[in-house]
């Protein structure tokens, strides 16, 4: 059983210093798969990927079917199973083992689905401000197109959910370059991935070492709701709980600090 640990992010710059010591310890270099969230693509991990690679890690940043540069493949038939297969097939075709599997936001559901199918290939599951579903739950509360319309407005072509304002991701006028970069790359999300109940036959990431990372600088978050949600990870000894001082898109807002947390997980995996 994994011991519960509440840890603070590493100091800025510690990753680069640590990467020098790893040069003589190749067994500490890990394989990461970083799974993006809704409306995003593999592009959002650009800076985190470069930092982790500079420390000697192998890093994959796939884009899920129908999003980002794969938006030309979008269709109403794409669902959670499609995206779980995207990552499971990457692991199989690249013949990867002892993977540190990271999911941001919506990507947390994909991490759980992949862990459920191939626990023996996952060394650590990391949920970055992510959704953690139980068997039979849907991403979207209510699990219907009407619920999506009520929350996000009319659906394009009946199945595409337009991206919300960048401020929803923690991107503001304080850093216009990052905000505008993300805004240029967002693509509509796929309704079917939010309405299909997830099937977790073996408990998702149960039994896999796992960490939940909460982004704690979200002014519009309902503190009571968040407190109840986070208690699940704080109080369960099978989880390690950490925080980052930023809005939702930690990999964009604080890429170095985010990479350092991932690096520290690798060092203990």
Query: How far apart, in Å, are the first and last alpha carbons?
Result: 14 Å
The structure class reads alpha/beta
Number of domains: 1
Oligomeric state of the chains in view? single chain
Averaged pLDDT, please?
A: 91
Which range best describes the helical content: under 10%, 10-25%, 25-40%, 40-55%, 55-70% or over 70%?
25-40%
CATH H level: which superfamily? Alpha/Beta hydrolase fold, catalytic domain
Do you know the CATH architecture? 3-Layer(aba) Sandwich
Main-sheet strand order equals 1-9-8-5-4-2-3
How would you spell out the order of helices and strands?
EHEHEHEHEHEHEHEHEHH
CATH first level: which class? Alpha Beta
**Rg, nearest Å:** 18 Å
How many helices? 10
Number of E-state strands: 9
**What are the segments in which pLDDT stays under 50 over at least 5 consecutive residues?**
7-27
CATH third-level topology: Rossmann fold
Shape: globular
Strand content: 5-15%
The main pleated sheet reads as: 7 strands, parallel
